């Protein structure tokens, strides 16, 4: 399925949220895929979140975007960024640093270099 079709499906899925956005402005965070290279956007997102936390010490990236989406490993990052905290459904469970640590710890076992991984 093409990236454009996936993006449009996500827009439809989140249309109820988009209707509530003021002044027609939609803040979209799109995260590209790339297997273990997902660690690169994770590093950038961590730095971005640290910058936001200079203004608000408890800031999480997902709180600043209306739609967060990604392809492949970017979709995994998007899901982790937007997963709700069971104790506070209005707050994301994971920080960007949590996601970076997830990639460092589990990346090698998830993203194998074995060319026969699909067999």
From TrEMBL:
KW Hydrolase (keyword) present: yes
Family annotation (InterPro entries): Acyl_Trfase/lysoPLipase, PNPLA_dom
Enzyme Commission designation: 3.1.1.-
Chain location of the short sequence motif GXSXG per the record: 70-74
UniProt keywords, alphabetically: Hydrolase, Lipid degradation, Lipid metabolism, Signal
Entry-linked Pfam families: Patatin
UniProt superkingdom: Eukaryota
Domain (PNPLA) ranges: 29-119
Range of residues in the leader sequence: 1-20
Motif (GXGXXG): 33-38
Purpose: Lipolytic acyl hydrolase (LAH).
Family, per entry: Belongs to the patatin family.
Protein name from the UniProt record: Patatin
Annotated source species: Acacia crassicarpa (northern wattle)
Phylogenetic lineage: Eukaryota, Viridiplantae, Streptophyta, Embryophyta, Tracheophyta
